[in-house]
Amino acid sequence: MIDLRSGRLLLLSKHQLPMTTQTTLETILLVEDEPAVRQLFAQALTRAGYTVHEARNGQEAMKVFDQHGESIHMLLTDMKMPYMGGAELAHQLRARRRTLKLLCISGYPGNLDAELAVDFLAKPFSREELLRKVREVLDK
Asked: Model-level pTM?
């Protein structure tokens, strides 16, 4: 890496290299009730070049979708949340826009209906697993 201010070549370990971001045209609505988890997911997605709208629960997600729905390519939602869970949210948003991509995540896979179980990621998962699955779903 070159320090642009001094023009010197800096030798950095791979852990010191800055995250490179590449811009994509896709926007993700991320719905997760745990603030720390939501922040980690949003950061990983943003660094990978996605535009991310965040919501704490299904009710908030509906409001975000009302404002930005036309630009949202994927709903990435936790399944167990207060007020409105991920399954109800997914069904409501898919009723409004059938082409909306969907990736469900949960630490409690339990009983998902067939439509929602198609693209599912069980917690815990790595950043790489999240990004790989997001790309896979968007590319379908």
From this structure: 0.81
Label residues 33-68 b or e (16+ Cβ within 10 Å = b).
beeebbeebbebbeebebbbbbbbbbebbbebbeee
Q: Which residues pair with 51 in a beta bridge?
A: 27
* 51-55/27-31 β-pairing: parallel
**11: Cα separation from own chain's centroid:** 33
Contacts 24+ apart (CB under 8 A), 114-119: 116/79, 116/86, 116/87, 116/90
Residues forming a β-bridge with 75: 29, 102
2-48 pLDDT per residue, tens: 333 344 444 333 333 334 445 667 999 999 999 999 999 999 999 99
Single-letter amino acid code for the residue at 33: D
- Comparing CA positions, the residue from 122, 119, 87 lying closest to residue 105 is 122
Which domains are present in the chain? 27-138 (3.40.50.2300)
Pair 96, 65: CB distance under 8 Å: yes
The secondary structure of residue 27, as a DSSP letter, is E
- What is the crossing angle of helices 127-138 and 35-47, to 10°? 60
